[in-house]
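Morning!

This is the sequence you dropped in the shared folder:
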Amino acid sequence: MDTLWKVLLHDVLSQPAVLIGLTALVGLLLQKKAFHQVVSGTFKTTMGYLILGAGAGVTVGALDKFGTLFQKGFGVHGVVPHNESIVAIAVQTYGRETALIMALGLVANILFARFTPWKYIFLSGHHTFYMAVLLAAIFVSAGVTGWPMVILGALLLGFTMVLYPAVGQPIMRKITDSDDIAFGHFSTVGAVVGAVVGKWFGNKEDSTESMKLPENLTFLRDTSLAIAVVMFILFVVVSAVAGQEAVSQLSGGQNWVVFSFLQALTFAAGVYVILAGVRMIIAEIIPAFRGIAMKLVPNAKPALDCPVVYPYAPTAVFIGFLFSFLGGIVSMIVQAALRWTVIVPGVIPHFFCGANAGVFGNATGGRKGAMIGAFVHGVIISFLPIALLGLLGELGYKNTTFSDSDFLMTGIAVGYIVRLFK
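The structure's back. Tokens below.
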């Protein structure tokens, strides 16, 4: 029984590709589609997510090397926000509580969507799992344990799974020019704040996607080439500062310029694959989801992983990454000057979440909106972890923490509220 339970939670419900494939399957069955349509829709939806994941894996591999060289080259030390690292540590202590909160939280998501105006089904299973881990850690550190913790945690998890997509939906309508899909990634607050700030300073008509370039640089209109060129420059800078020895440890003795060139192209290729996967998912999940919308939760919308917005503004994706990372560097310098805990800019959250802020900012403020919105996002995810560290109990002393804005906001809010009743 324990094995079956473990398979259900860890190998099915926490796997986004399986979860999103099952969702497409249920939607197609509810519409009583023909067998070949059910098989095709289910498999292609799952494949789309696996393609997205493959691209993300390639991108993360290049970003990990970039982050290592950045820290070595500039001698940066401190707390590194990284969801996967903190979750890997936490589940060793809170594994059972996390499993129960997640299982009941998925049910709570459907109930909230069914009986409230927020008709969102959250389909990013890995982020559901991370939020369950966060809630378990917060409750345990505040002295709330047992079934009260599980029930409260599940209700809060289900609530966040409809709340955050609802917060992001007004901007999602501007980005997608439709109301068919929602943003299902716990970096919503940072992206929405970026959109609000971007609107103050920019003009949405001055879009990043219509930027004019000199004739000799028109090849940069191709997003993949633009990303490759800029990443090559960044890799050359951090490799030069870190030195050949540091590069050799990562490359196995490869020349640092050749290493920088290949890593830049690898990163750009990963982004290209991500976009291809997202396009496949959107093409399959929307018609399949109509079954759920019509039968189980009327007017429901699928809340999808963060790359879902990338195809709508590919240039803003990269601008968002660069300016969010810049916000992280500036924040780090300020924290060091104030002798606070230093939050080292995590390249992965600044890429994936900063890209979201760039796309959201572009939707409301165009080019300036993408830049300023993403910069503000970078500052947000650099300072909020300091407030969260003290609420995580022993987890707060592991030199890593949660990185995305909604995890940070939820953890801080729930942590302080729970302590009022101790």
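Headline: The first helix runs from residue 2 to 13.

More detail when I'm at my desk.
O.
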